[in-house]
Amino acid sequence: MSAPTVAAVPVDTPDAKSVSVLVKDIVQEYPADSGGVTRVIDRVTLTFDQPGINMLLGPSGCGKSTLLHMLGGVRPIGVRTPTSGSVLIDGVECHGAHDDSVMVFQRYANRPDLSVFDNVAFPFRLKLWKSREPEAQWRGRVADLLKAVGLADKAGLRPAQLSGGQNQRVALARALVLRPKILLMDEPFGALDAQTREEMQQLLINLYQSWPCLVVFVTHDVTEALLLGDRVIVLTTQPARVADDFLVSEPRPRSAAWQRSATAQGLEERVLAQLHTSPGRGQVRVTI
Questions:
Q1: pLDDT higher for 100 or 1?
Q2: Which architecture does CATH list for 13-100+180-276?
């Protein structure tokens, strides 16, 4: 089954292009059980200055989710985050959650006591967004997003009545209903079966075409990175450093024939070669 056709979602091009993110000399250390510290991220610098799907690829456990969480303002209690370095959004140092940034996790965290419609509309219950959007406007936006993700006929159901893939669509719609400038995705399709994961990947591409924001997508799947990404940033095993950073010029959607092509195989080999030169634990996945 293919992903549903995306309904028209208004695109405000100036707003979509007006955000820049600088991750500057980030170091993250945590207390070690044996005393001292464990360095998880080691002087990572990255710049994102235009809409695009940026894949943050690295072995499982390398620190890529920790880096993504910094961008989303997720800060563990009792630990200085980052240990050193800074995250700047539009030139302003960011120490916590940011109004222009939303995150989608692997665990979709839909409220079991709310309907699908109310889960997607939940941000508008919060003071910040409730004051920004008239009710008629946000209700129309929620309805548009449910149509876009193929759940218009499920609006009155509860999460327990949905499949895993449908629940992830709810989570994605809840993030996009705010029309964020920055969309952060932490292995959002990793727990799905192969067919559902493929449908969700196509759905993300379709939604991105309607709302071209700055996407940073964490994965340890090389195939997924090359299938979705405009840019692929390869991190080493822990402590994470930038091993490679390159663009993928093939237009999306990228066909199965392209995925088997010499070009795609060369990019895959390039990624694996970088990771094999990095000592340490952690795995990446190739799904085709």
A1: 100
A2: 3-Layer(aba) Sandwich (3.40)
